[in-house]
Each structure stands twice: as structure tokens, then as C-alpha cells.
Amino acid sequence: xxxxxxxxxxxxxxxxxxxxxxxxxxxxxxxxxxxxxxxxxxxxxxxxxxxxxxxxxxxxxxxxxxxxxxxxxxxxxxxxxxxxxxxxxxxxxxxxxxxxxxxxxxxxxxxxxxxxxxxxxxxxxxxxxxxxxxxxxxxxxxxxxxxxxxxxxxxxxxxxxxxxxxxxxxxxxxxxxxxxxxxxxxxxxxxxxxxxxxxxxxxxxxxxxxxxxxxxxxxxxxxxxxxxxxxxxxxxxxxxxxxxxxxxxxxxxxxxxxxxxxxxxxxxxxxxxxxxxxxxxxxxxxxxxxxxxxxxxxxxxxxxxxxxxxxxxxxxxxxxxxxxxxxxxxxxxxxxxxxxxxxxxxxxxxxxxxxxxxxxxxxxxxxxxxxxxxxxxxxxxxxxxxxxxxxxxxxxxxxxxxxxxxxxxxxxxxxxxxxxxxxxxxxxxxxx
Length: 432
Hints:
It is a single chain. The chain is globular and about 75 Å long. The strands form three sheets. A seven-stranded parallel β-sheet has the order 3-4-2-5-6-1-9. A four-stranded parallel β-sheet has the order 11-12-10-13. Strands 7-8 form a two-stranded antiparallel ribbon. The chain has 432 residues and is α/β, with parallel strands linked by helices. The chain has helices at 19-27, 29-35, 41-55, 62-72, 74-79, 83-88, 108-122, 135-149, 152-160, 187-190, 198-202, 217-220, 225-235, 267-272, 292-306, 321-338, 343-348, 361-371, 380-391; strands spanning 96-102, 127-132, 169-171, 181-186, 209-214, 243-248, 252-253, 256-257, 261-265, 313-318, 350-353, 403-407, 419-424. Strand 7 (252-253) and strand 8 (256-257) form a beta hairpin.
């Protein structure tokens, strides 16, 4: 009989109640009470538990914390063959690095901003680097961080507490990052040799930097070549990053729960607390080969039933970047024929969204096959950037977009209210 493990039993306990530690942890209670609304008290708890680990002299690194939990908790030992196998699952165990499990929709950005602001205020870090897997998520984080940094009440509390930095500077990676700055950047831009100053700004600054990794399941289980470089960047000795916090709503590598989680607020709890809504399935179908006629009929019914109040949006999910662009082209052809409109009009109704476009190999040839007949009027990369900009307005009634074709990973971190239909174009798109 196989053993059953409760996820809650795998969450690491940070056991340090020394006066010096607790003094820092609770110094910022007034700030956190203002930042996190009453129904989001768990956000305050997440920040405090993380802060407790970061300031504790008892835990110089993750390995020390993990070994303590291994020695003191039977549930942790049962889950792993031996302590070496347990530690082997922690590639950042030699750093002050831990993970937070916060369900999607529970306000991860507020937790990250709270950690960043307190780290700068307390002098735990001179700079904060916030990394995420896509430009879409980057834009959302930037917007929220700018608003929070500009909140006079929050900065007022920090000034009263004698903060080293009361008002953080919020920057992208295309400018020099100074002490007191929070830099928000998508990981793909970090690898670019032009247009990003991340490498120059953070080289040799690792000891004075706090790194916050958003959607961190991509860090530990990268789905593509670009995201495989994320871990390499964090471990690069040129930077020497020591303090890291990884935040995600899906802390799994395949079916294995992250071994370094120190705080969990799961989806079931969030639904029970009415922090997020329980999905209300009007129709849930088993997978079958994709049929544009069926998808279109459901889309039209949604328009008929709800179109007077909102503009229903349908999302088609594909497995890979090249296939995403090919499927978008198929959709455009279908809409043009079905609605008897021009291809140009059909294109305005649909977007394809990916983290990048392929620059080599078979994938590049497939993408170019879609764009080559366009007589040089457009390019995949130019269109991708334009689509990302258009994505921000798809909820607006003035936007003509009704259809979005995307690689599955890019549906994360995107705030949109009007999605009525999600369809996997192939079974592999929803196999995870």
C-alpha cells in the first residue's frame, strides 16, 4: 500500500523566536496592516514567516533549515529516501532561499512588494530584483509596485519607523539599478546582450540583493530552453546572489511538492475563506480532436447570452510556440470564411501570445511559413510585441479581440475578467 502525504506536513517550520529576530519581524506590523486588508491576513503571515527566516542567524542557508526539519519531523523523513536525496532536490540549498505557496488570485504581488519594501527599509538588502517568466506578468507587477511605492500612507509609516529606504524606486532592467531600487524584469530580458542593464547593475552585488522569483514553478521545472537559464542566472558566481524568495501558486515539479516551502495558503483554503471564487463550470467536456465549428458555436452562444453585459473571450491553448502561431493562422482563415469577412478583419478579432519567437531550427521555419506571404509588412517579433500591448485592453468593449491563441504557460499571471471558453487545441496542451 502506498503512503499518503499531507501537503501541510511538508511545509518547513522556521523555529526561531529569539528576541532579536522577533523584534525585526514585528517592527513592520503597522506597515503590513496597512498594506494587507483584513481578509488578507495570510499575506502578513507570509511576509513575517519569510522575514523570520531571512533575518535569523540560526539559519545561514536553506540546508540548515532543511536538516533541522528532517531531524525533528517524521513526516518529512517518510517522504524521502534519505537526507541526501532530500537535499538533492534543493538546488539553492547553499543560499538563504525558500519558497512560498500562495494560490493564484490571493495577491502574491502584495506579499512580494511587502518583502521588497521591508528588506530595503531594514537594510537587509540594498537592491531588490524581481524576476518573472513573461512580459505580461512583468507589466502587471510593475503597475502594482508603482502604485504601492507611490502610496503616501505606506511611505509615511516607513518614515516613522526610521526606514533606510522609505520610498523604493521602481525600475525596469533597461536602466541602471541604484541602491534603494526595486527592479522588475522578465527573465528572458535578462539574457539579452542589449537593452538590459541587469548584468552590469547586479554583477558583484549579490550579497546586498534580495531576489524575488515570481511564478517560480518555471524556475524549478522549466518548460522551454529560455527558462532553463533562469536557475543558471541565479547560481552564477559573477553575481553571488544569497537571498532569494520563490513565489508560486503551483509549487510542484511533476507531482512532487516543493521541498523548501515555508508558508502555504492553498486554493481550497482561499475558496473556503472566499478570497478567491470557486470555478463555476457551465460546461466541462472531455478532450476530443479540436473542432472549430463546435468552438465557434459555443463562442457565438456566449455572445448571445452575455454580450449585452460583457464581451465574451475564447482562449485556444496550444503546446508550443510554433504551433500557437500556426493555429492562430488557421483560426483567422476559419473566421474569414465563416463570417464572410476579409482576412485583415479576422486578424483584428484574434491575437496570438507567446513568450518569444523561435530564432533557429524547424520552429523558426514554421513561423516564417506563416509570415512569409505577408510581403514583409509584418514580422513575428514585431507582431508579438504589438499583441502583448493589445492583450492589456482585451476586456474593453472598444477592443475588437474576441479570440486568443496562447501557449498554456502564458495564461498565468494575466488579469482578465471575460474569459468564457478555454479549449485545448491538442491533448498535450492540458496534460499537465
